[in-house]
Design a protein that fits this description.
Chain lengths: 407, 973, 86
């Protein structure tokens, strides 16, 4: 009734000797860019080169939270568009991305945090994004499991409530975009490793892969946590990135108990209930660079301590599975997107930290425009690499930068 | 209630001691030693739960919790694996995820609709039209999930945590684990032995077959356990599952408390020098139609039901097995009274001839090369069909018990979680350890061994290898142990059968997620052709059993279905916790920790309302009026006291102390004069101010300086970091906790202080911006500074923490006649804002540098040799006219102050309000804002956008700073 | 993973006692004629090596010293100096 016996993202094919565009990385930003290149710009001669399988990295490891309540005016419109795109993509891809716009509740634990939240909320409202500052009692009404007593490490003063945010099924986005792109002619080559980028006279000429050399004039590296290392290895371009492991975990499945995404900066913790009923929770990063995606005993314990305090009913629930992924962090918690700068035909889309999932739909759209027209769309202009040498960090985090990657 | 055996030496229950419990509102009895599941089984309960998707009946299948079949709600706690949870008096047990009851579930019709729900079907439905999705989603949420937890549930019990160091940690208290522990302990090493069951013995414990002449395996297990317990350097943790293994030999687990323990559960974290994994095997589930129907169970489950718990698991059984343990179990259970219609062995040959002879002697029908293909019976097994492995011939037998198992499979989670790798082994059919993690050794059955003596020898070898890691064993000894093992029987040949010859529509590869063989085929055909992708697409292995059921069948099936020439496919990653672990257990004891100042208690007595600020607890308010009107007015017109003990305080001295200060402070520190206070700032490399404070010269290359409260913890780290290449000689001492700080401020401050100190503190003798050290009553050493953070005459007294109370009381007593009052952090915040003294993070952020916040005058540009941190960025950004700048503003039409965080806008966001208040001192609203440079000119009108303002805007005007006492007369008086 | 770091003063300890301090980039450059590119390269840019790199650590809950080590970022294990003794 529903099934056709056909691989969803095309049959395994031979790698051609040339493509109009080569995209390194089979994650969401790559798939979305390819999809929009094909859909909006008629560029279909594209090869996506993925070392493992699509969705292997951050795309399949994030906890799927989406929201558009960032701090600065450069970011909010981009994430707003991304948020607005989920229903559109569900329809266009004809694939249920399971967007659960349950709303996000970001807890505040001090007067200072309330003030910071107010600035973020005002910024959201100014850009037409719904977001409100609510007090602890109102937060408790939304999330009855919340502990709003004074008797915890970080008593809850209030929360930033962002109703349009929520959760999207991350795997569905990977498969939906892959299917959508493949239908339009994009080739997805899994188990294929990109080994180098060939250049001549400051222009991209080819990409060397584990399955042969591809001639091409345009390359995008959007390989999540691996981007910075690849870009340095292949082109010698250094980036202000630190690659950290970020962990997430789920409990055993429960009947509905948590109707919103709840997060807390002070506790370094977020929690939401998946459609399957598991409480998905995480947030902490081990503040030293590594590519292991391994878990730590330290962290699952920390998470339990945090949840025990602000969602104490979960003390009776069991953790079932913890995993890790990579986050490529920049000093200002904002990404780096640009093209034709160091090398003509070379584009990069990286430094997303743990925001890569939330942004993928809109970024795909704009990166596609950028690559198709060679003109940087206004939306992406603030994200150029040169801001770091101009001493103009974006301020997406209020924290002051120091030498360490966790700010 | 079923009859129990009470004569078996292997029993772990005491049938004489009854334990009462409540199941579905009715009282039942089990016996001491029962698990919840065995007690229910003894009371005739066969259907424990319904499955997640199809609401199929589920019963007892294994006894080690590899699936959610026996997950129930116990005492309000959901998803308790009843098959290995000990029964306790008064337990209240309920079914989960049923509409009606587990016995009669109204939702069981779903089982017939499986054709509507192929793998990944939900991605293709319910989104057209878009309107139906929110409704469908609600229904999905309701249907999903197993147990229930109430939002106001309070977890009872006590939870503890311990952190241990040891030489060798052994995971698994079976024969191999015990031998490893003994091997290492005999070398004098400290050993920790972890066993998930409540007793040692593992694979030997419940078996009566012969270990050697005159000794059963059970006897041998007891003997080994005794020996282990006799070693003082072996610490045994039973009922303790190892749930995580990490590199560098960190092992975590949790221990279930016994009746007299002070904890219900205890988190254990062990740092070992070497780890031995002897976790044994579980059974690889046999895949056939209805292979999870209640009445189908694994060999060990059936055998241990009888031998450990004294319960005959059925009346009439059919065995469909692929391992000699199945034959042994059949014989034992037969002798205990189980009728056996047939034993179907997957293997054509290779069985233990002794066992075969016994089967023949007992006239049990034995079919070689046969396997179960379908269990019949709507809720419970009534019959089973068997077929030859090639599917050519079949037979059907009546029975109420099917003992089914494809063979053994090693428990390798501890190894792979620690980044060891596995390799498919053609002889055993197992995924065996390939590359072991550094200083981790495997032993026993998980290496494919089956012979009791081999198992023990491999344990001894692993124990000695671990001792070698601890440098307590010679290569020679290891060589001998290796030889001993090599002379014993090696791994036995295993069965290769992955599924019975069935189509697989109702053959379940994963019970928890109701995933069938057919679903796996569907996924592969859609392009999900590796186990990791199939796992995501079909959810196989993602349920509470954590992959225990499908773990090794999935890769084997994927290889078989795609007819891969060699099994290079690996099982999906196993994730910690290897056993589901309560959040309360991980959380352990309470971790609420804050620093308190020496004045904490006294300020609380005075009505201080405290807040957590950074690592400290500080008095933020002294009344419920959060505008702090009285506190503020008292400082402005009289005198107030503030506890500033959280301020960072440091001494830096040594030949290169000045050089270090020049590196981190933006001012020229060579110009600090003795007896004077130098206010300065530290920047980061981007020129952003990260700290400010005062510096006092106490002697040549000997300075005392303060930092902001929030920064004190990083100051030493910061200074040492930025001087790490220089090899400079200086000592840096953090005095933050050694000294407290009292800030006494207000026009009457001098009058109060005069009464306490013995020296002349007149304005002439002790002027603004000066520093003095003296003693009160020849006893209490004081460091006093004339500062003006709040804009009034003010003294900052740095007092040894131990004298803080005394000085505080003296000042209070002296101030009585002036009615001296406390003031808190919020009053200070308003007072300093009126003076436009900034607080880092409040009036500054990542986008603002020292110049932007108006403190450029602190920066000395002429010390390039010092390589001052931030100087380069300040030079380079100096002329940039597009940055945010700090401005002061007042409101138009004398209107109220905007809320902190409100935006400055035109058609775009141009800045935001840092701090603004209705000032009592000035009788108008004032504040500071960060705005884009073009808006920073005096007189510029600011359009303010507050949250929830809709289309309303309020307006302010940029004015000169500071607002209060611009000439600074009051702080200098 | 369970990181351990070997402090030259305190020995091999739990990694959480330490704070990471960035890739080794050499001493602070001279201020004179430092271009924005060169400044940025020193302050912000990383190589993000997937493999062995030299990097700085601070023994925060210990002796309070800064020291460089070699670590393999793909395994999270300390490594001896490449080409060095040991």
């Amino acid at each position: 009734m529903f099934l056709k016996k056909k691989p969803m993202w095309g049959k395994k094919t031979k790698l051609k000797s040339s493509y109009d565009v080569v995209i390194i990385g089979g994650g969401l930003h790559s798939l979305a860019t390819a999809y929009f290149l094909a859909k909006e710009h008629g560029i279909t001669d594209i090869a996506i080169i993925e070392k493992n399988y699509i969705g292997f990295g951050g795309a399949g490891r994030n906890t799927a939270i989406v929201r558009a309540n960032q701090r600065t005016q450069y970011n909010v419109p981009l994430y707003k568009e991304a948020l607005d795109l989920w229903p559109v993509l569900t329809k266009d891809l004809d694939y249920n991305l399971m967007f659960n716009n349950c709303g996000n509740l970001n807890l505040m634990h001090s007067e200072a945090a309330m003030k910071a939240a107010r600035m973020t909320i005002a910024t959201a409202q100014f850009h037409g994004v719904e977001s409100h500052l609510i007090d602890a009692k109102e937060a408790k009404e939304l999330v009855p499991a919340l502990n709003i007593s004074e008797d915890i490490t970080f008593p809850i003063h209030g929360a930033m409530f962002h109703p349009p945010g929520g959760v999207v099924r991350h795997d569905a986005v990977v498969w939906g975009l892959a299917r959508g792109a493949a239908k339009k002619g994009v080739e997805i080559h899994q188990q294929t490793e990109a080994l180098g980028i060939g250049t001549q006279n400051g222009k991209v000429t080819s990409v060397t892969t584990s399955r042969g050399v591809i001639n091409t004039k345009q390359v995008l590296i959007s390989a999540g946590g691996y981007s910075a290392a690849l870009i340095y290895d292949m082109l010698g371009i250094k980036l202000p990135i630190s690659v950290l492991t970020i962990q997430a975990m789920v409990t055993q499945p429960l009947k509905p108990v948590l109707d919103h995404v709840v997060s807390s900066g002070a506790y370094h913790c977020y929690a939401n209930q998946t459609l399957k009923g598991e409480i998905a929770t995480g947030a902490h990063m081990d503040p030293w660079p590594n590519y292991t995606t391994l878990n730590t005993a330290h962290y699952i314990k920390h998470q339990a301590e945090a949840l025990s305090e602000f969602l104490p009913c979960l003390r009776g629930v069991r953790f079932m599975r913890i995993w890790g992924g990579l986050a490529d962090m920049t000093p200002d918690m904002a990404p780096i997107m640009e093209g034709n700068n160091h090398v003509e035909g070379f584009f990069m889309d990286c430094g997303w930290g743990y925001f890569g999932f939330k942004s993928c739909s809109a970024v795909g759209k704009y990166m596609a425009e950028y690559m198709a027209t060679d003109v940087c769309p206004d939306m992406l202009k603030p994200f150029a690499l040169k801001r770091y040498q101009e001493h103009k960090l974006m301020g997406e985090t209020a924290e002051l930068v120091s030498y360490s990657p966790d700010n | 209630m079923m009859n129990r055996f009470n004569h078996l030496p292997t029993l772990k229950v005491d049938t004489a001691q009854k334990i009462a419990f409540i199941y579905k509102g009715k009282k039942y009895y089990g016996v001491k030693g029962d698990t919840v599941a065995t007690a229910l089984y003894a009371n005739g309960i066969r259907i424990f739960a319904r499955s997640l998707k199809y609401h199929r009946p589920r019963g007892l299948y294994s006894l080690d919790g590899e699936c959610s079949n026996t997950c129930m709600e116990v005492d309000g706690i959901p998803n308790v694996r009843c098959e290995n949870t000990l029964l306790k008096d008064g337990m209240v047990i309920k079914e989960q995820n049923v509409k009606g009851s587990a016995e009669n579930d109204w939702m069981s019709f779903l089982d017939k609709l499986d054709w509507m729900m192929p793998a990944g079907f939900y991605y293709n439905v319910m989104h057209k039209p878009a309107k139906i999705w929110p409704i469908a989603m609600k229904q999905i949420r309701k249907a999903a999930g197993l147990g229930k937890i109430s939002p106001d549930f309070e977890m009872p019990g006590k939870f503890d945590e311990i952190f241990l160091n040891t030489d060798v940690c052994v995971i698994g208290g079976g024969p191999a684990g015990m031998m490893a522990a003994l091997g290492a302990a005999q070398k004098g090493l400290r050993v920790i032995l972890m066993e998930s069951r409540p007793w040692l013995g593992g694979f030997f414990e419940y078996r009566s077959s012969q270990y050697k002449e005159g000794e059963t395996l059970h006897n041998r297990a007891g003997q080994l356990a005794k020996e282990v317990e006799s070693f003082e350097n072996i610490r045994v943790f039973t009922h303790t599952a190892a749930v995580g293994t990490y590199n560098n030999n960190l092992v975590t687990g949790f221990q279930i408390g016994k009746k007299d323990d002070v904890f219900n559960e205890r988190y254990i974290e062990i740092r070992a020098k070497s780890v031995v994994v002897a976790a044994g095997c579980i059974e690889r589930p046999l895949i056939f139609d209805n292979n999870e129907r209640p009445g189908v169970m694994q060999i060990n489950c059936a055998l241990r039901m009888a031998k450990t718990y004294g319960l005959l698991p059925g009346k009439k059984a059919v065995f469909s097995i692929g391992h000699d343990l199945g034959l042994e179990a059949a014989l034992e259970l037969h002798d205990l009274g189980l009728a056996i219609s047939c034993i179907a062995d997957i293997r054509e040959d290779g069985q233990d001839p002794v066992l075969l002879k016994k089967i023949q002697d007992k006239n049990i029908l034995f079919l070689k090369g046969w396997v179960a293909t379908k269990a019949h019976g709507r809720k419970l097994v009534k019959k089973v069909s068997l077929a030859s492995v090639d599917g050519q011939v079949s037979k059907t037998f009546d029975c109420d018990l099917v003992v089914a198992s494809a063979g053994m499979t090693p428990v390798t989670g501890h190894i792979t979680v620690a980044q060891g790798t596995l390799k498919y082994d053609n002889h055993t059919g197992f995924f065996l350890p390939d590359q072991m993690p550094d200083k981790m050794h495997a032993a026993g059955r998980l290496l494919g061994l089956n012979d009791p003596l081999s198992i023990e020898a491999s344990g001894m070898l692993a124990g000695l290898k671990a001792a070698f890691d601890c440098e307590n064993c010679s290569i020679g000894e290891i060589g001998e142990a290796k030889k001993a093992l090599e002379n014993l029987p090696g791994p036995v040949r295993g069965t290769k059968l992955v599924t019975a010859p069935v189509k697989g529509r109702k053959s379940f590869i994963c019970f928890d997620e109701d995933a069938t063989i057919k679903n796996i085929k569907q996924a592969i055909e859609k392009g999900f052709d590796v186990p990791e992708l199939i796992k995501r697409f079909t959810a196989t292995g993602l349920g509470p059993g954590q992959g225990g059921i499908p773990g090794h069948n999935l890769p084997l099936y994927v290889a078989k279905y795609q007819a891969l020439p060699d099994i290079s496919i690996r099982p999906t990653n196993v994730r910690p916790p290897l056993v589901p672990t309560l959040i309360s257990t991980y959380a352990g004891v309470n971790h609420k920790m804050f620093k308190i100042t020496p004045m904490d208690e006294m300020q609380r007595k005075d009505g201080g309302i405290f807040r957590n600020i950074g690592v400290w607890q500080r008095a933020r308010y002294f009344s419920n009026d959060l505008s702090c009107k009285k506190e503020i007015e008292n400082v402005r017109s009289n005198v107030g006291m503030l506890d500033g003990s959280t301020l960072g305080k440091f001494r830096i001295y040594g030949p290169d102390a000045l050089k270090a200060l020049q590196r981190v402070f933006v001012s020229d520190m060579s110009r600090v004069k003795q007896g004077r206070i130098k206010y300065s700032a530290m920047c980061n490399d981007d020129g952003c101010m990260i700290d400010d404070g005062v510096v006092i010269k106490q002697g040549e290359n000997d300075y005392y300086f303060t930092t902001s409260s929030g920064r004190a913890g990083q100051t030493a780290e910061w200074i040492r970091y930025h001087t790490r290449y220089d090899g400079w000689n200086f000592a840096l001492v953090n005095l933050t906790d050694a000294l407290g700080v009292i800030n006494i401020s207000g026009p009457n401050a001098r009058k109060v202080l005069e009464k306490v100190v013995d020296i002349d503190i007149s304005n002439e003798a002790f002027g603004y911006s000066e520093y003095k050290e003296f003693k009160i009553s020849d006893t209490i050493p004081l460091r006093a500074m004339r500062l003006g953070f709040v804009g009034e005459l003010s003294y900052e007294l740095h007092v040894p923490s131990s004298y803080m109370k005394a000085v505080w009381l003296m000042l209070k007593e002296a101030g009585k006649e002036f009615n001296i009052q406390n003031f808190g952090v919020e009053a200070q915040n308003v007072l300093r804002m009126e003076k436009c003294h900034i607080i880092l993070g409040q009036e500054s952020e990542q986008r603002t540098n020292l110049l932007d916040v108006g403190l450029g005058f602190l920066w000395d540009r002429k010390k390039a040799d010092a390589k001052t941190i931030g100087a380069v960025a300040l030079h380079q950004a100096e002329k940039d006219q597009t940055r945010l700048k700090l401005v002061g503003f007042k409101m138009e039409n004398n209107s109220r102050a905007p809320r902190d965080g409100a935006l400055i806008v035109d058609d775009k966001v141009r800045g935001y309000i840092a701090t603004a208040r209705d000032s009592f001192s000035l009788n108008e609203a004032v504040g500071m804002a960060l705005v884009e440079a073009p808006l920073s000119k005096i007189g510029t009108r600011l359009t303010i956008f507050e949250d929830e303002c809709g289309d309303d805007r309020i307006y302010g005007k940029v004015v000169e700073m500071p607002f209060y006492d611009p000439e600074g007369k009051r702080m200098k008086m | 993973m369970a990181l351990t770091i070997t402090c030259p003063i305190c020995g091999k300890r739990n990694g959480y006692e330490f704070k990471f301090g960035g890739e080794e980039k050499g001493p602070r450059p001279d201020e004179k004629d430092l271009t924005p590119e060169a400044w940025c390269d020193y302050v912000h840019m990383n190589k993000c090596v997937a493999g062995v790199q030299q990097e700085w650590w601070f023994h925060k809950d210990g002796c309070g010293s800064w020291f460089p080590i070699y670590r393999d970022t793909t395994t999270n294990l300390e490594k001896p100096e490449p080409g060095g003794q040991k």
